Amino acid sequence: MYYHLLRKGFRRSTAKIILSVALALGICGVIVSVVTVRTETWPETAENVYVLVLVIVVPVVPVTLLPWLRPPRNARRPGARQARFLASPVVRRAKPVPYVLAVLGYLTAAGSLWWAPEDFPRIVQVSTSLLAMPAFISYLQHRATAPELAHVLGRDPRSPVLYLRAFHEESDAFMWGPKDEMQRYTELPFTAQTWPSVCVTAEQYLAGAVEHRIGPLVALGNPVDTLAPEGAARSYPGDDDWQAHFFALARESAAFLMSASRSANVLDEARWIRRNGWQERLFLLTEPTPKANTILRRWVAALVRRTKGIRRVSWTDFIDELDRLGYRGMPRRPGPGSVIGFDSVGRAVLCGRRAVEPDEFVAPMVAHLASVR
Question: N- or C-end of the chain: fewer Cβ atoms within 10 A?
Fold first, then answer.
């Protein structure tokens, strides 16, 4: 539903509010049901159906169907991202509220040991979850105050690394791993309730190593973004001048990073790179072997990808597209964690294989760039 709202023209913040209202109505319905409805004598199946249909579905369906009645509009907005609400005094003053509620929850949990011991674990869990809310607000504020591309290039004299990807694929998982380890690559807070295995995107995973070894990671931003995603510093040109922005960045870039994609705009960028003789700075990356590679992880990854509307292109189809653009000798089965560069005539060079850590991706790039200078 979230991505349907975006396609209808809603901004990301509005879409999230609609979903939050639907979820809140469902939760309130469950609470009201528990308090007011006596289901002790009901069969278990009947009780479950009641909670699902009358309590959750009924309040959620109207909110869910409402956006379908709204005609599509253009939500693409060039220019710097602004999130005034996150910087407002209301948000700053409200950040201590979850801590107060958590303390009250812990006191309630302590009292429940006398009158309802069986509720103690659930009350503690809910109270602990409240502690993550200020950290999540700080995460959003961190994204809202992320430096713009021009500012990043102004303070770093090195040439940037331009990240090329389809906008609808930029949130796709690149690396899965234990949440304690993945926390190094994102400001998003993980709590005790977070799954042990979490994922990060390619730009989250690689941005630090790229900036350390080569230069700042930059990208052209999706005009529907409310907040810039973590990772690459972005500029947000309009639909009529994004190509000029691409060429301005490409001329100054030390390298280009790209994953398999059949996006028309990404393939256009690959074509322009080849025509201008910049292919020696282009690197294709394949997803590394996950650090948490269970069957459940694979099911969750496929479900999340499907929910986001991401359909991964096969590597064979991708290299066939590149072959038509003048890139030759692409390996048919490069394997996970591969780094593929190109020589002066556009022939592929396998720079690295089986990379897992960010530095293992970046080191072959540095060596290849040094060899073609």
Answer: C
